[in-house]
Amino acid sequence: MANNVATLKLETGFSKNAIENLSAIKNEPDWIRARRLEAWHLYEETPLPAPNDELWRRTSLKNLKFDDVIPFAAGGATPLPVKFQQIENDASAGGVLAQHNSTSTYARLTDDLKKRGVIFCDLDTAMREHPDLVKQYFMTKAVTYYENRYKSDKPRTTASGRHEGGGYGDTIGDLKFAALHGAFFSGGTFLYVPRGVVVDLPLQSLTYFDAPNVAMFTHTLVVVEQGAAVTLVENYASQENETQRFSNGAVELILKSGASLQYFHLQDFARNVWHFSSQTARLEKDSTLTWLNGALGSQTTKAFLDCKFLGEGTNANLLGFFFGDGKQHFDQHTFQNHIVGHSASDLLYKGALKDRAYSAFRGLIRVNPDAQRSDAYQANRNILLSPKAHADSIPELEIEANDVRCTHGATVGPIDPEQIFYLMARGIPKIEAEKVIVEGFFDPLMQKIPLESVREELTRAIQTKIGM
Questions:
Q1: Other C-beta atoms within 10 Å of 212: how many?
Q2: Which of 89, 162, 219, 468 is placed for a possible disulfide with 188 were both Cys, Cβ 3.0 to 4.6 Å?
Q3: How far is CA 268 from the centre of its chain?
Q4: Which among 238, 326, 222 is positioned nearest to 281, based on CA atoms?
């Protein structure tokens, strides 16, 4: 196996042959290989987004280089960063999973949770030890390139032969890169919580990569059965170097009736990383989701987040924060998709930008014809800390029911001068006053994160960015 891995490390670029090699090295069953190849077929038949594509016109792909990308490599021998080692040893976590360059390096879960049937491991281990369970959910219910999302007037046929007619949601904005992920997924997290099991302590997943030129295709699959409850914090980082790197991840969150999930997705990649993310949640009757996405790192981030309300009584708090400096670029799309009525969603995304950083937020609330008595709110707040920073905020509503309550709002601007004046009048220098205001701007979201070690690390990262 070591020889095969070494051979694959030398192979660059994405191809069907690379998929076959990757699948063989992992000794995968036929059904996984078949799903990879189906996704590859879809990737090949789907063109790159055009510069004038409404969902892509704010993010240029002209500097994205695929020629030297290595699709997979085994984990290295170098240790995880000190900050990850500290989080790894956090006793307040009920379980910890650490991965290095797509290879699991550490796994811990309390004996009590194991006895109660909780499964928390890397995705490769889950496919090997729990194949029937993984096969039931993996890339079948929530991964976005098999689901409808954005508008198209033209029918199309997927690689599996599934026909999709025109109308709402038949072509999705991340189709090309979600399909590439489906072909090359490697590494990731699997969490399964059986019916009625309540996990009191949060679980923590750490992913770090430093192998030169290697692409990351991590995949998270969370299944929370009826009446179960759990909290999962995922933390992503990488080593800085001069070589451009590519990350293309996916997240599937599946909540059964009455389930409760708190999910925190925290990204602090180095500045040489192009990061694409496709995340989807499915909420069944009376389920509750708190879903927070934090982005501090990467050179360019393009993220699609889709929350589907499939049953009455569902409720989701969708939270996000981002802080860009230098020439960082964040482009995020959120979708509150109320398919069934008597459901509620509340979205709040906050961002701060300095230097020449740029952000684009596009949020869509969609209420389908049968989703009467839906209640949806959306807010995007942006602070500009320099005259050359720029933020675009595009909230959208599509309502096809007549008994709903839906509102949205967005703000973009510098720090309120009255706030600065108030603090300076009490003896606080202007620079320190700005720091206090920005920290206070993010603090309500920071306090949502249940692990103190993670919260402290993010606070330090934000303080470093504030600088001033």
A1: 13
A2: 219
A3: 12
A4: 222
